[in-house]
Specification:
- By secondary structure, this protein is an alpha+beta fold.
- The chain folds into 2 domains: 100 residues, no CATH class; 107 residues, Beta Barrel (Lipocalin).
- The strands form 3 sheets. An 8-stranded antiparallel beta sheet has the order 4-3-2-1-10-9-6-5, with no helix packed on it. An 8-stranded antiparallel beta barrel has the order 11-13-14-15-16-18-19-20. It has a two-stranded antiparallel sheet with strand order 7-8.
- It is elongated, with a radius of gyration of 27 Å.
């Protein structure tokens, strides 16, 4: 009789453990669902081209270059939404400055092209400095943090030059090319003779190539490289991408590139 009782207790204990493990598994699954749901809530709104925030984060900035700058913080000013003005370029500084004033207040955003690391050891390519005040505030409140452009990641590739102002490039020659790295805000490439590199800023439908550094090799038939560098050096372009062809258009020139596999 004792053996029967012991056997019964063991069976009941095993069933209880099994149910406990089952309930524990369900608890983990519920937590995972909550985690995914929270992640979905933090998605970047459609149309946003640039994001920035403080370390805490006690503030955030979303810029849609076709629409508005949206600044929010836990302190005052709580929220400022302004149109996106034409940027100013501070002298001797690799930065863009946006100053906007509305009936609600003033928002000034300066985006510096310099590495920025958060307290969580996240690397960003831009440091952001903000001065903001609501209409009834006497003084500006300042905010500092890190930011990044949400660019078109189809650009992250090597592009070989096809045409300059509609004129095809001789493909028997070493053609110039550009390689964009949106994450680090850099452009690399080949001018036809020398290696080149510089800074890169990508916005909604435009990209700006900074002053390019170049190696100093001497090559025959250097005219193409000279022409190419004069066109792309320290210049802003509107870009279009279609069927593996990238078109860059400035005020004076149009370049087309083909994606290199």
């Amino acid at each position: 009789m004792k053996k029967v009782i012991v056997t019964f207790v063991v069976i009941v204990s095993l069933m209880a453990c099994k149910d406990a493990k089952k309930n524990q598994k369900n608890t983990f699954e519920t937590k995972e669902v909550v985690k995914i749901t929270q992640k979905e809530k933090t998605k970047i709104p459609e149309g946003v081209d640039f994001i920035a925030s403080g370390d805490n984060p006690s503030w955030s900035l979303l810029i849609d270059f076709d629409n508005a700058m949206n600044f929010t913080s836990l302190d005052r000013p709580k929220k400022l939404t302004t149109p996106v003005p034409e940027p100013n370029i501070p002298q001797d500084t690799n930065a863009l400055n946006y100053l906007a004033e509305t009936e609600a207040g003033i928002l000034q955003v300066t985006i510096f092209k310099k590495p920025c690391i958060t307290n969580a050891n996240e690397d960003f390519s831009y440091k952001v400095y903000i001065e903001a005040k609501e209409k009834d505030m006497e003084n500006y409140k300042t905010f500092e943090g890190c930011g990044k452009y949400i660019g078109d990641y189809r650009l992250n590739d090597i592009w070989a030059l096809e045409t300059i102002d509609g004129k095809a490039i001789d493909k028997t020659m070493k053609r110039p090319n550009l390689e964009f790295n949106l994450r680090n805000g850099q452009v690399f490439g080949f001018g036809g003779c020398n290696r080149i590199n510089g800074t890169l800023v990508v916005e909604k439908d435009s990209l700006a190539i900074g002053a390019l550094a170049s190696t100093k090799m001497m090559c025959p038939n250097a005219e193409l490289e000279t022409q190419f560098l004069q066109i792309v050096n320290n210049m802003k372009f509107h870009y279009k991408y279609k069927n593996l062809i990238l078109t860059l258009t400035s005020a004076e020139h149009t370049l087309t590139f083909r994606k290199v596999d």
